[in-house]
Design a protein that fits this description.
The protein is α/β, with parallel strands linked by helices. It contains 12 helices and 8 strands.
Length: about 350
């Protein structure tokens, strides 16, 4: 039987990871989730010394051009560069991305803020579409960094991925196994089981969030540059839930009969056991998007390489703590330090 206390393993065994205590004014999953709208990070590519936008063309003819930003540390460092992957409807310069980047830069980690295909600055440069099973774009980015900008990643690469943006990262880690190019990774509020998550979004008040995510995804998909037929555009414009979007458009687009088939083929929950890269996974029990089941039902191994950090509150990517900081932001750099510097890991 799975150990029901296992999701708290990281908190119990990493001395630097304190239990999450929510901010007194932002209690409950919905308020914690909405709290990310209050983020006001100062970091921008225009105000950070040495920041550089960069483009990554793919192999299509003509090529799609994916985009990102590189932020060096203010002082020389031997820390790995950290790639940040955004969630559904986000982009490289979303507030939660830049906020995490500020914490990592302060801790000595160079940062790469990445736009998924068709998001942010890449929207007008890509006819192709992003989907959460697209491991190839992770490989494309890694290949570009190591061949075109080796000086950026000469000390290695780590990653932080938010929400649905964690799915392709985790699938890449599983597929690459011992050959992964990441030395450590962090996922924040990852919907490990996309079918369960989509079902959860259609319950009660969660439908409000479902509509919000659907609107953001529709906006990205229906951009002028996207390679879509008139029929596909009509379907995307008229669906009323994320499930319908995936059932009537996404699944068909990628050769599946239904959303359920598509989710089963691409959900990271089915391949977690293949991951060999040390990975810290944050999840809150009151997350209005992601259900507890994939975290509570799994038999997590105390020796890693997957370290679940489970809390009763925190919402979806919120984790606004009693001091006004972000639990996951403060912990990410410490986790990377622990894994990279060889600080003793938990043992059974």
């Amino acid at each position: 039987m799975p150990d029901q206390n296992a999701p708290e393993f990281a908190i119990d065994h990493f001395g630097w990871l304190d239990p999450f205590v929510p901010n007194r004014w932002w209690r409950g999953g919905w308020l914690q989730t909405v709290s990310i709208k209050t983020l006001r990070p100062e970091l921008t590519p225009d105000n950070w010394p040495g920041a550089q936008p960069f483009n990554v063309p793919d192999q299509n003819t003509p090529p799609d051009v994916l985009c990102g930003y590189y932020f060096p540390t203010r002082q020389p460092t031997d820390r790995p560069a950290t790639i940040l992957f955004h969630g559904m409807g986000g982009h490289a310069l979303s507030g939660y991305m830049r906020s995490m980047a500020e914490h990592l830069l302060d801790a000595g980690y160079p940062v790469i803020l990445w736009n998924n295909r068709g998001a942010g600055r890449s929207a007008s440069k890509c006819t192709g579409l992003h989907h959460p099973g697209n491991v190839d774009d992770v490989k494309l980015l890694l290949r570009h960094l190591t061949t075109e900008h080796p000086q950026w990643v000469q000390s290695g690469i780590t990653a932080v991925a938010f929400s649905l943006g964690a799915n392709p990262l985790l699938c890449y880690l599983a597929e690459s196994g011992d050959e992964s190019q990441f030395s450590a990774t962090v996922s924040v509020s990852a919907p490990l089981d996309m079918e369960l998550t989509s079902r959860n979004l259609r319950r009660g008040m969660n439908r409000v969030f479902d509509r919000y995510l659907l609107h953001r995804q529709q906006k990205e998909l229906l951009r002028e540059s996207a390679d879509l037929s008139a029929r596909e555009r009509s379907i995307i414009d008229n669906v009323s839930s994320v499930w319908q979007l995936d059932d009537q458009f996404t699944a068909k687009r990628y050769g599946f009969e239904s959303a359920a088939d598509y989710y089963r083929a691409h959900s990271a929950v089915h391949v977690l056991s293949q991951i060999r890269t040390p990975t810290l996974l944050f999840h809150a029990s009151d997350d209005p998007v992601v259900d507890d089941a994939p975290f509570l039902d799994r038999d997590w191994q105390p020796g890693g390489p997957l370290y679940p950090a489970f809390s009763e509150s925190g919402g979806h990517t919120g984790f606004l703590d009693r001091r006004g900081g972000r639990w996951h932001e403060n912990a990410a750099a410490k986790f990377f330090d622990a894994m990279i510097d060889g600080i003793k890991r938990p043992t059974q």
